[in-house]
Amino acid sequence: MENPHKQLVVGILAHVDSGKTTLSEAMLYRAGAIRKLGRVDHKDAFLDTDALEKARGITIFSKQALLTAGNTDFTLLDTPGHVDFSTETERTLQVLDYAVLVISGTDGVQSHTETLWRLLRRYHIPTFVFLNKMDLPGPGREALLEQLNHRLGDGFVDFGADASARDEALALCDERLMETVLDKGELTDADILPAIARRHVFPCWFGAALRLEGVDELLTGLDRFTRPTPALEAFGARVFKISQDEQGARLTWLRVTGGELKVKAQLTGEVDGEPWAEKANQLRLYSGARYTLAERIGPGQVCAVTGLTKARPGEGLGAERDGDLPVLEPVLSYQVLLPEGADVHAALGKLHRLEEEEPQLHVVWNETLGEIHVQLMGEIQLEVLRSLLAERYGLEVCFGPGGILYKETITEAIEGVGHYEPLRHYAEVHLKLEPLPRGSGMQFAADCREEVLDKNWQRLVLTHLEEKQHLGVLAGAPLTDVKITLIAGRAHLKHTEGGDFRQATYRAVRQGLMMAAQIHKVQLLEPWYAFRLELPAENVGRAMNDIQQMGGSFDPPQTAPDGQTATLTGTAPASTMRSYPMDVVGYTRGRGRLSLTLDGYRPCHNTDEVLAAIGYEPEHDLDNPADSVFCSHGAGFVVPWEQVRSHMHVDSGWGKTARPAEEAATRPRRMAAYRATLEEDAELLKIFEQTYGPIKRDPLAAFRPTRKTERPDFDAEQWEIAPEYLLVDGYNIIFAWDELNELSKQSLDAARKKLMDILCNYQGFKKCVLILVFDAYRVPGSPGVIEQYHNIHVVYTKEAETADMFIEHVTHEIGKGRRVRVATSDGMEQIIILGHGALRVSARMFHQEVQEVEKEIRNYLQGEV
Question: What is the pLDDT of residues 486-496, one digit of tens each?
Fold first, then answer.
C-alpha cells in the first residue's frame, strides 16, 4: 500500500551559534524520531557525529535525519553554519523543497544571515523562519520582525499571532491574499500555501529550542503550510554530496526528483566529456549515523548510493538537469607542505579524493614548481583538511602562508580576435567582451548570423568559452564579471576541426584582454569581507583606527543601552582583515567577537603593489597565447596579438571607430603595394584596343588608397600577404594538358586531384599565392566555397557562376594593386583580364613553366642526395 504522506526535503540554515543543530535535535525529539535529547555543548548531538564537530561544537558536514510530523514525511538536512563551509550549504540548497532559517533572538540578522538569504533567493526556496533563544535578553519580537523586513526584505509574518492579526499582515504581503481577505474576511491554509511557495510570505515562529519552546508550533506549521514539489514522470535525480562511510566506501548522496530509483539500477552520466554507466548497489536511508536499506526510492526522498564512483556534486541524472555552479568560491590559497620523503603525486591523489567530498576545497597542482596548493574559504578548513588527511591516510601535512585569490575584469567593451590556420587547419573567431555588474560572473552568448558562421560551429565556440576558466592578463587571475559574445567567425569546408575553434576561441579571448590592457581597461579585483565587530566600548576607537588602516569602511558604531559594549559593521579587503580576529582577541582581552562574511570582489586597493609582487608576464604565458596562427606558402606562421587584426579574413563590423591606430599602421603597407608593368603581348593588346579602344592608365593609381566592396565568398584581404598572385582556370587547364585530359576521360575527380598536387609542388617552389578555380555552376544550390588544399587555395564557384566570371571579378578587385597572372586558354578571358591589368599565361606556356619547375625540383633533390 502506498504511503499517503507528503515527501519533503527541508534544510536547516543559520549563522554560526544561532542554535541550528539544537533546533534540529529538538524537532527530531518532539517528532519521536529520537528518544534522547542531545546537546551540542555535551558533545552528544544526534547530527554532530564527526569528532571534529564534537570538538569544535559546530556543524562541518551536512547531515540527514528522517522524521514525520502530521501528514508529512520529512528528510531534514542540517547544514554547516560557519562561513568557511558555506559552499557545502549552497550545494545542499539545490535539493531542498523548503528551508528553515534559524536566527538568534539575541543577535538578530548577522552578515552571514544575509549571505544565506541571498542564496535562498537565488535558488527560489520557500523559507520558514525560527527565531531562537527568545528566553534570553534581546530586542523582542516586534524589533526582530522589523529588522527582518528591513535587512532581508518584506514578507516576514508572525504565525504565532492570533488569526486576525496574522491575516492582516499576510494581506500586505500578497495581492491575492489581500483580495481574499477583502472578499471573505479570513484566510485558509489553501490560500496561504501558494503565497509561501512563491516566496511572497515567510512564516515566522519564536521560541527557545533548548527548552523545546515553539518547536511543536514549527513542526505543525511545516506540516500545514507546505506542499510537495511536482515530480517528473521519468526518472530523475540530482547529486548534491559525496562522502564515505566508516569502512571507506564512497557514498553518492542524491535526491530523487522524478520516477523511481531501484536498487541495482544502472545509472549513467558524463564526467569531463566521458560517459559513465554504473550500478546503484545499495540505497541507504540515513538518519544521523544509522541507516536502513531500501529497495526503491521515490520523488522527494534523499538517499546515499553505493557503487557510483564517477558521479559529481551538482550532476543531474536521468531526466534531471545539472545544478547551477556554486556562487560562493574560495578566496584564500595555501601551499601544502608534505613531510620529508612523501610522494607528492600520491598526496595529490588523496587530496583530489577529498576534493570530491568538499565542494569548498579546490586542489591546484603547479607542475612547473612541483607544488600542491589548496584554495579554500578560511583557516578552519585548514584544520579540517589536516585532520582528514591524518585520520584517513596517515598523512601529516602543514601549510605555508596563505595568499589571496585575486580576479580580473574589464571596464570597457572591446573586440577580441583569434585565428588558427596551420597547414590543413582553419578557424577564425571574433568575440565582443563587455563588462558586467559586480558578482555577475561569466556569461556567454552568440550574436552571429548563420550565413556568416554555421550554427554548429557557433555552438562549438560557446562550448569552448564555457569549458575553461579564462585568465586575465594583469596577474593571470581568473576572469569574472564579463560577458563574451560571439559576433563573427569563419570555418573551412574541409579543413576545420573542433580543435581549431578551441584554439581560435581561446586566442580571441586573450587578444581582447591584451587590447583592453593596452588602453588601461583591465582591472584587478580582490575579495572583501563584510564584518560585524562586537567589543567593549573603550576599544571602539582602536577598532575604528585599525579598520581605516586596513582600507575598510564602517557605519557609525552602535552602542548597547548599558553603554558597556558597541558594535561596528562595515567592509574591508580580505587581504588586510583575515588575520584581524586574533588581534581583536588580544586587545579586547578575549571580550571582542569578530564575524566575517565574504562580500564579493571589488577593485583592489593596492594594485601596483600586488602586481609587482606577482610579476606575471602575459606574453610569456605559453599556455594562454594571445597571438594568432596564419598560413603562408604551405606553412603556419605566428602573428603577434597587436598586429593580428590586420590579417583577419573576416570583418565583424563591430568597433570600427576604435581602430584608427591600426588603420594608420596598415595604410603604408597597402600604399606600398605595386602594380607590375604590363608585359608586352602585342597581338592580344591590339585585339583589345580595336574592340574597346585605347587603354588609359594612371601611373599613380596603384599608390592611392581604394575602397573595395567585399563579396561574401571572397575576401581579397586574405591574399595580401604575398606580392604575386597566380589564378588558374582549373578545367580549362585539365582539358588543355594532354595527360590530364586523358585522365579526365576516366575520372574527372582524379584529374582534378592530379592538377591540385602538381600545383602544390609548383607553389612550393615559386612561393606565389596560387588560386585554383573550378566551375561549380552545374551543381544546383552550390553556395561557392574557398578551400585550403595544402599550400594552395581552391575555389569552387557558386551556382550560375563560371570560373572565368570569378577570375574576371578577382582580377578586377586585386589587379590594380598587385601583380596578378592568370593561366587559361580561354581567348576572351585572356582579353578581359588583360584589360584589368593582369598578366595572362596560356595553358601551353604554363605547362612548359610547370615542367621547368619540376625539372629544377628534381635537380635540387638529386643534388641533396
Answer: 999 999 988 88
Q: What is the DSSP letter of 479?
A: B
Q: Are residues 294 and 199 in the same domain?
A: no
What is the bridge-based pairing of β-strands 635-639 and 724-729?
unpaired
Judgement on whether residues 413 and 454 belong to the same structural domain of the protein:
yes
Specify the range with the lowest mean pLDDT, choosing from 206-215, 258-267, 489-498, 779-788.
Answer: 779-788
| Rounded Cα–Cα distance for residues 675 and 701 (Å) | 9
pLDDT tens digits for range 330-354: 778 888 888 888 888 888 888 888 8
Q: Which residues contact 680 (CB under 8 A, 6 or more apart)?
A: none
Would 658 be classed as within a structural domain? no
Identify how many contiguous H helices and E strands the chain contains and give both numbers: 25, 40
- Asked if 231 and 300 touch (Cβ cutoff 8 Å), the reply is yes
Number of domains the chain contains: 6
Q: What is the rounded distance in angstroms from the CA atom of residue 230 to the CA atom of residue 259?
A: 11
Q: Does 698 fall in a domain? A: no
418 and 395 housed in the same domain: no
- Are the C-beta atoms of residues 460 and 496 closer than 8 Å to each other? no
Taking the C-alpha atoms of residue 583 and residue 542, their distance in angstroms, rounded to an integer, is 11
Strands 261-262 and 250-258: unpaired
Domain of 822?
Answer: 725-862
**Residues 501, 460: contact at Cβ < 8 Å?**
yes
Please indicate, yes or no, if residue 106 is contained in any of the structural domains: yes
**What are the helix (H) ranges across 783-826?**
803-814
Identify whether residues 785 and 755 lie together within a single domain: yes
Bridge partner list, 317: 237
Q: Which of 316, 253, 307 minimizes the C-alpha distance to 285? A: 253
Instruction: Give the residue from 400, 433, 457 where a domain finishes.
Output: 400
348 and 471 part of one domain: no
Q: Find out whether 162 and 169 touch, Cβ atoms under 8 Å.
A: no
Q: With beta carbons less than 8 A apart as the criterion, state whether 66 and 53 touch.
A: no
- Measure CA 182 to chain center: 49
- Give residue 674's identity as a one-letter amino acid code: Y
The radius of gyration computed from the CA coordinates of the chain, to the nearest angstrom, equals 36
